[in-house]
Write a structure and sequence with these properties.
single chain; 6-stranded parallel β-sheet; 12% strand; 314 residues; alpha/beta; two-stranded antiparallel ribbon; Glycosyltransferase_77; 11 helices
Length: 314
Amino acid sequence: YSGTPGKRERMRAELLFDDPPEYFDHEKGFIAMHIDVPQQMLDKCNGEGLKGPLIADVLDNHFELVHYQLLRLRTALAISSVTGRAVIMPPIWCEIDKYWAQLQDGNIPGTSWKKPFICPLDHVLDLEGHWARVLPPDAFGPHIEWRERSFLQNPRLSASVNQSRLLVDTCSSHGGDCPGGVTGVQDHKMAVSSAADMHALHVAFNTPEATSHKILELSAGALEALHGAWKTFAQPQLDQFMNRLKHYPSNTCCLQEHPPGWVWYDFLADIPHKDRFNREFKDKWIYYRGDQGDLATWYNRPNPGLEVAAAAAA
């Protein structure tokens, strides 16, 4: 669903693409992350509620799952913006397949498999439109490179790169406080807390001790601790980063009411905002259908929408 970049990424994820040697190194290094998806969230996305044509009433579990992961990926993207490191994508779990026409039981008609499943990255992200191309930096901030989810398992990745890791964990896991929200490097480890802002992270992650490591490895705890750090970008960097986030997602497709039968994913689903189509999200993240201001039709429940506050606290 993302043209050549989408096809290439799928082949890379399965270790089937013949990249040149320089693909397996990077001048600034890489960012790896561990997203700890709650088991209860995965268990809810078992496909049992998806019987029949896809309607908006049954989207909540899938969107809660995908957005949970995108909000953690957002933290890694913010750190990439201040370090220049390429982001190694995490596996993205989904409950719903993607198609150019109406889905049946959450699947392309005639197919079926166990849910949830790790979906292709182009199901969720617009690789062709806004990841593969270099966007104008004055509007979107610095370009962010990425690698596929299986990058660290590729036998062509040298041990000198793969073993050069700087583990970033929480201050509490290190048994102490972090003045300013972030510590220096010690024994190939750093610690962060929710007190860290983007300026402090920029300084800490760009010291010679930090940049000497090829891979900056963010623990699940570190992702949680730094969940809101991106909001501390100074202007115009904050607006540029938010603009990039607004253009990075793709959509799910297709609902019974088609066309348009798609709903866009959202890297800002946990805060009030306007999306790339200037549609407003207030206290609830709501299901707009297509690219206009049309709300998806609900058949079995009133007041549809995911609570923004609940998503932020998740």
